[in-house]
Amino acid sequence: MSPTAPHRTAPRRPPRPAVLLAVASLALASAGCGTPPELRGPAPAPTATAGTSAGPTTPATPTAPPNPVPPPPVVPSPTAGSDLVATACREGPSGDRVITLLRGSADVLPRAVEVRVRTGPLCAGNWQYTVLRVTGHEELQVVTRGRPGALELVTAGTDVCTIEVRVAGPIGIRTLACDAVPGGIPGA
Predict the structure, then answer these.
(1) Paired strand residues for 88
(2) What is the pLDDT of residues 138-167, one digit of tens each?
(3) What is the DSSP letter of 58?
(4) Can you give the pTM of this predicted structure?
(5) In sequence order, which residues have a C-beta less than 8 Å from that of residue 124 and are 6 or more positions away?
(6) How many CA atoms lie within 13 A of 92 on its CB side?
(7) Helix (H) or strand (E) holding 120
């Protein structure tokens, strides 16, 4: 061909399907796709081929994948259990302290009404649950929190299962305030 002669290109043929398949397989293999080795099952047992002795064969026993290691047991901290169940307050407020709060700054009970403690205070964490008998009225449930000297009223009434109690209250208090049967024994 002379240097000034126009260069002709041959028409292109589409690639053959077998070539496309080989290229795609090679691309997938080099991309690292597939099941990770730790998730693959056991390798198949070798089989006898023609020309080998035909003796009795025993089936290959598949090896079981290693058992996953269970997580360590949860060991609750010494104070974590105090939130699970409400019990009689050892260091918590007395029933009289709860009544004083309700008659004082909380302004829930008038001074002239007679009030007696029916249940509690029961403590879970730093929260308390008390049921009071109020003469001439329904029983009054009271949920408080804090130390006896700095007691804070959370809620008081005939239904004390408020959003604050459900969301922030310890399990023992939530159980008494939200799950107890009306007129039943709290915590029973």
Answers:
(1) 122
(2) 899 999 999 888 899 999 999 999 999 999
(3) -
(4) 0.54
(5) 82, 83, 84, 85, 86, 87, 169, 170, 171, 172, 173
(6) 24
(7) strand 115-124
Do 130 and 120 contact (CB within 8 A), yes or no?
yes
CB contact at 8 A, 164 and 129: no
Q: Which residue has the tokens 């709290």?
A: 186
- For residue 134, give both structure tokens: 């109020």
Q: Which residue has the tokens 């249940």?
A: 119
Cα–Cα distance for residue pair 85/52, rounded to 1 Å: 72
| Largest distance between two CA atoms of the chain | 123
d(CA 143, CA 130): 7
CA 183 → CA 6, 98, 155, 159, 188, distances in Å? Answer: 105, 20, 19, 12, 11
Tell me how far the alpha carbon of residue 24 is from its chain's centroid. 44
24 phi, psi to nearest 5 deg: -65, -40
